Amino acid sequence: MPIYRAYVIGLHDRPVGVVQIDCVDDGSAIDSAARLVDRRDVELWQMDRPVARFDARSKQTFKK
């Protein structure tokens, strides 16, 4: 099962926290990471591959 990491983004686009997510594919990892979005943006990565970025203000998801 692939391991994904969701990085909570703080000031100046620097990570302030990380959550490991074990999911079977990108779609389920995106769904799981979307639940982490509150007042801060979240970036989802699988190893060194960017998967998606979640913008907290606009509530949009940008797939990479």
Which structural class do the helices and strands define? mainly beta
Q: Strands of the largest sheet, in order across it?
A: 2-1-3-4-5
* Helix share, percent: 10-25%
How many individual helices? 1
Proportion of residues in extended strands: over 45%
Query: How would a crystallographer describe the biggest sheet?
Result: 5 strands, antiparallel
Morphology call:
globular
Overall pLDDT, averaged? 94
SSE string: EEHEEE
Number of DSSP E strands: 5
Runs in which pLDDT lies below 50 for 5 or more consecutive residues are: none
Distance from first to last alpha carbon: 21 Å
| Radius of gyration of CA atoms, rounded to a whole number | 11 Å
Topology:
Blueprint: E1 3-9, E2 15-22, H1 26-34, E3 42-46, E4 49-55, E5 60-63
Antiparallel strand pairs: 1-2, 1-3, 3-4, 4-5
Structure characterization notes:
- The chain is mainly beta.
- 14% of the residues lie in helices and 48% in strands.
- It contains one helix and five strands.
- The protein has one helix spanning 26-34, and strands at residues 3-9, 15-22, 42-46, 49-55, 60-63.
- It has a five-stranded antiparallel beta sheet with strand order 2-1-3-4-5, covered by helices on one side.
- Strand 1 (3-9) and strand 2 form a beta hairpin.
- The longest helix is centred in the middle third of the chain and has 9 residues, at 26-34.
- The protein is globular, with a radius of gyration of 11 Å.
- The mean pLDDT is 94.
